[in-house]
Amino acid sequence: MKGQILDYSVHDNKGTITTTDGTRYYFEGQEWKGDATPARGMAVDFEPDGSSAKGVFTALSSTADAGSRDKITAGILAILLGGFGVHKFYLGFTGPGLVFLLVNTIGLLVTWILLFTPNLLLWMIAVVEGILYLTKSDEEFRRVYVVEKKKWF
Questions:
Q1: Helices 71-81 & 117-135, crossing angle to 10 degrees?
Q2: Is there a contact between 31 and 54 (Cβ–Cβ < 8 Å)?
Q3: For a Cys-Cys bond, which of 19, 48, 127, 139 suits 3, CB 3.0-4.6 Å?
Q4: Beta bridge partners of 48
Q5: What is the dotted CATH code of the domain comprising 2-58?
Q6: Domain locations along the chain
């Protein structure tokens, strides 16, 4: 059965999974079979056993999944076009993407007085973010930027 982790406590070594129909299943840490630590929002596949979940695995997702984002694409977009926020839009972060876009287009006309300092600062932030994206493992990138939706650094 497929579901999504609703909550997981490292301290208690217990978690809760919810399915699309709203049913909740509870699992113990020893039932976790995934490579990474369980995290809120993570898609999982499991065997229901009453109100418990047994054999909980990270769900395999297809590349056609709308929530899947590629770290290499995000990293390259950040390094090459990051000053315009393209990598933020790619990851689904419209607000931060608009910050980049507005500062580097409309703000370009105003910031010439400041020697384009805001534009250069945002470009450097984008390059650092691109490097961070590329140096993370695929699973860590997915957990941090796709599941947990971390918007900055």
A1: 160
A2: yes
A3: 19
A4: 53
A5: 2.40.50.140
A6: 2-58, 71-147
